[in-house]
């Protein structure tokens, strides 16, 4: 069977591919500690489970409008106003099967093949994969310590810029000043923006600000993505939404209609319950303690350079001192020690590794970290 050129040249996301390999090893009876992805050991909020259980017992689960039930979009507009200082109408919101669908639809609606899109490195791999599927020219830019007007003015012309705030994998949270600089640059250049705020609740230090809280977000062409997956421990529920200018959201609905139509009625009920379940204080407190444990174990390691993240479920580690290929490091670690990590190559930065620290129990976390720490010198010796 002939496969189209546009998909034949594509490859599965490295992040999901590694997790798939771990699942296969487990199915074969092998014990594996999986730091390659972030799957919370917390359950979804009780209010979510209760709401979905009640809905599932109804005789009829209805279709809704493609962009989501009107009542849900009204409620999400309330969330945006209260929590993100974003003034949006229900018609400017679309409910999706997770943030990935919202990302694909927004990029499809906002670009044409051959357009340039700016992506900061290291990146979430879906940004690159989606760009390539859509025939876009990706401009990779190293994530700066501080996003300033001077940094932005050095960027080449582009149709679209993608910002992850809070940032996966580094855990950086952009300040209000940085977002103000970005807003001014967008106004000067006419470049549009997609801002992925999937980690908005997983904050350890700084406050989170939305770029779309700007009064000019519509005219600047800013689309913001939200997800329940990480902030509410709902990875498998596939529950997200986007807010953007009405014409962009309408175009996204046109695309979503023939692909999935609206998310399921159960997903939409879960979406409302999640985003109105309150701040995930216990979850964040647990993650903060785990993060401190990871930092305590990794900071003294001479071949690791690590900075405590301001948010998120990952630790981003510079291991260039090992002098080895980080893909080979990850492969050998998985094969020999049954510990999975994500090589930075998959996120655009060879010489780094990403480790999720929110799965399993503390004893397993310690065991996996100890295995990595002990394995590094072995890899370094093998490379001599």
From TrEMBL:
CDD domains named in the record: AAT_like (cd00609)
The protein's UniProt keywords, in alphabetical order, are: Aminotransferase, Pyridoxal phosphate, Transferase
Q: Outline the extent of the Aminotransferase class I/classII large domain.
A: 31-365
* Molecular function GO terms recorded: transaminase activity
Which cofactors must be present for this protein to function? pyridoxal 5'-phosphate
Recorded superkingdom? Bacteria
Entries under PANTHER family matching the protein: ASPARTATE AMINOTRANSFERASE
Identify its protein family.
Belongs to the class-I pyridoxal-phosphate-dependent aminotransferase family.
Could you tell me what this protein is called?
Aminotransferase class I/II-fold pyridoxal phosphate-dependent enzyme
Top-down, what is the taxonomic lineage of the species of origin? Bacteria, Pseudomonadati, Pseudomonadota, Betaproteobacteria, Burkholderiales
